[in-house]
Structure formats: C-alpha cells, structure tokens
Amino acid sequence: MIDLHTHTTASDGTDSPAELINKALSAGIKTLAITDHDSTSGWSEAIATLRTPMSLVLGAEISTLTVEGISVHILGLLFDGEDRDLQAMLSDSRDTRIPRMRKMIELLAADGIAITMEDVIAATPPGATVGRPHLADALVKNKVIASRDEAFVDLLHNASKYYVTHAAPTPEDAISQIKKAGGVAVIAHPFASRRGEIISAATFTTLVAAGLNGIEVNHRDHSQVEREQLTEIADQLHLVKTGSSDYHGNGKLNALGENLTDPAEWEHLESLANARRVVRK
Hints:
Largest sheet: 8 strands, mixed
Number of strands: 8
Helix content: 25-40%
CATH topology of the largest domain: TIM Barrel
CATH superfamily of the largest domain: Metal-dependent hydrolases
Strand content: 15-25%
Shape: globular
Order of helices and strands: EHEHEEHHHHHHEHEHEHE
C-alpha cells in the first residue's frame, strides 16, 4: 500500500509525525509520503520514528497561485531538503500566511463572528504552518461552528467572502524549484471543484513544460468522471498517475490508504528523481 500525500502537526494535521508513522504502520501502509504544507519541519521526527517494513518518502505540499489567481497545490517529493532555494521558497510562503490570517480574522470579526488572532495561534501546534484549518479549529473551540468540515463548507471555502489569498509562487516556479532540488513534482487534487476554482485541462501543458512529473488522479475530492478525465490527460502527456489519502488526522474525514498509488506508477515516479532518497530502516 502506497500513500503519497499526508499531513502532520508540522502543518495542519492533528497527528505528530511519530503518531502518523505508527498509524500508517498499523494500517498496512508500506510506502508513506509526509507532505506538510510549505514545510519540511516534520521530517526529522518521522525519520527517527520509522520502522521496518515501511519506506518513508519525504516531501512538502507547496501552495502556489496561477497568474489568474487560481490556487494550485504542488506535491514535491524526494527533493534535497538542504536545497537553499527551495527552502527559501517554502519560508517565504509560510511568512505570507500570517498577514493573510489577520485579514481573514478581520473580515470574520466585522460580521460579528467571535475570533481573534490569539485564538488561532492557540489552536496552532508549535512550529506548524498556520493555515485555514487552524482558524477552523479556533472557530470550533469558540463554538461558532461544530467541526472543521462545517467551517470549510460555510465560512472558509475559496469562494467565501472571508477567504483571502496570499502571496505564493506560480505552479511553474514551484515545479522548477522542486526539479532543481532533485525531486519530482505531482499536482495535487487538480480537479477538486468543491475547493473552489480549478485549472483547465489546457493548463497541464505549461506545467509539463516546467517539469511536472505526475497527477494525483485518485483523491477523495475527485468524482469518478474527474478521475477518468485526469487519467486521460496523464496518459496523453505521459505523466505518472498517483492516488493518495491527503490524510490530516482528526481534521478531515480522509482515512489513511483510502486512495493509493499503483506500485508500478510509484516505481516510475521514484526513478525520475536525481537520487535515491526513500528512507528505509
């Protein structure tokens, strides 16, 4: 079982890297990727916890914006974690999240919704990348809504009047940096329309030109029709097809291993990195 997209408390998951490793082992996951938002801070703990027979794939989910302002997430896997340019890109993206969060809080408070920046910080694990899920958790604690899912349905979705975008690299720039750092790039849940505006099929051509290696086809937020469309695009453009859980712990309904990557597809994807960086013990 190969799951190439999960989150920990290093970003907006509710399990620590150690807890995630142990849960994945119990679930029968043989190859697991840790891909926290704009962060590699959970890598060390994950490596320290790793046990046979699991293989660990280190990565990050990079937040990007197209020139049209559409949010696109790029999974960077198997890159050199010491690459300064890529780490600078991740750091810049994290830094822009604080003013963005303050603006969203201002918009909510202006409509009488009880929330402060202090509430959000209290709901954010130490060292984690601040994001909307932490705002959702603060709203739950303040009894504004009942769950993270409800927050994203009613208040925090991309089309909400409370949503504020943040400065981010373009998908092409992120892909380029991942490739320069020796890794592979996979676009995450590209047709997940319930998250907001999505890219068109034509956009994939420019992403391939930048070095895109794969498409996350099998994902909870893709309908069967969308999966079929993405499979066709991947085959036409000779891209690897992946599947993953996008697991966040208790923060989302997603279960470890609910969508998986075919071993042959993973073998091909791994071979496209410039070095063997899968961690095994």
